[in-house]
Input
Amino acid sequence: MKTQPIRFFRRGQIVTLDGVDANRTLLDMLREDLACTGTKEGCGEGDCGACTVVLAELQGEQLRYRAVNSCIRLAHSINGMALWTIEDLASPDGSLHPAQEAMVQCHGSQCGFCTPGFVMSLFGMYQNHTAKGQPISRELAQEELSGNLCRCTGYKPILQAAQNMDHLPMQRVDEATVVARLQQLALPATTPTPDSPYLAPRTLADLLRARAQYPDAQLVAGCTDVGLWVNKLHMQFGRVLDTTRVAELRRIERYPNHLAIGAAVPLVDAFAALLESRPELKAFAQRFAGLPVRNSGTLGGNVANGSPIGDSMPLLIALGANVVLMSARANRELPLEDLYIGYRKNVIAKDEVLAWINVPQPVAGEFLRVYKISKRYDDDISAVCLAVALRVYDGRVTSVSIGAGGVAATPVRARKTETLLRHAPWSLATVRLAMDNLRSEFSPISDMRASAAYRSEVLGNLLQRFWLEQQGMQAINLETFTLPQEVA
Output
């Protein structure tokens, strides 16, 4: 079977590539097919950021720029987008882009292997902030560079480079031309081949028909997990069904009682929507992988994958979220925790897709916290994740919902601990009983991230931390710790 051509905008022109395998990563296409060897392969897992490139796509009449990991992104997924690599930033006369010049002036590179990825993340920041007249603070730089790792220079000069970009002469993208070319790309150059190995339907109806016709096709969204399967497990798929072009599933809809998040909404946008009504989630949202992963990965993909250490599910369980499964024959809705039946196993039928995540709006008196425990503070996978939503009235717990990750074969709801807490006095004595109950409710395993005993102990400790924060205690976590300002 022949794949459709990949068409994207780069360096002022539309690039068309034929015969690209459906399983080929964007990084391999860049380095091996286009000889763009400035983009480096580091970890091959989306962890180090050495392979970062920047994509842009239309949102209405405007461009949305996203720095992404090319090592775990399938090449066909950039069809119809604009692409920038490290080779594309300098001007024709050789003068450096501010993202490059700032790194030079601040001595932000040492061995140089990670530098292209850092520069591309800086370029993404430049387009999203500096070019719009928005200054970049150290905090913003640290947040948006969290997906890029440096093993020899140290981060101080790189963070300084991010802050110094707006001190340099402005260099603007010709956005009018990019928009015009992307609008041109939106018109298919050829009639889509219905049995292509890489299918990217644009409507929900077309997606459901394709799913019914090809129930064994590998569903993909941002590929932040599937990309690992390709790179590390050497898996190959006979047919790929990409959900990220489906217009309906890229929407976020707000209703009086709930927020409906389409399964193809990128994680960064899904968290932004949740933060509008629950700003206390900001620190957790920033720690959900690095920004390039959040730019590519989708909330629906994270939920459907069902990893026991996937961070969104404990939070969504605590929030009482439901998932909507759709097929050409019927739709159904169920609580998120009921989606899973075993390790990476779920109740989604072969002709169904996870289409929506419905999250209840917060209610008066809700106290919500979600805790992520990992070996590295930024850009790491959880050993334990605990989310608790609780309401207290007249000294008693009126409602409580607890989601946990990393302690069972699936993301789980702590039903026994919820039962113990519900209608009980909200006191330290009750909390201590609940801590012991929570530690014994699950049987975690020992692995490279943590021992079973550690996970159980931490689970109870996090409930105590929740109690302390609900009582008003401050400065008991890293989120509230700030470094003293340097003296000039």
In short: The radius of gyration is 23 Å. Residues 200-360 form a domain with the Uridine Diphospho-n-acetylenolpyruvylglucosamine Reductase; domain 3 fold (CATH 3.30.465.10).
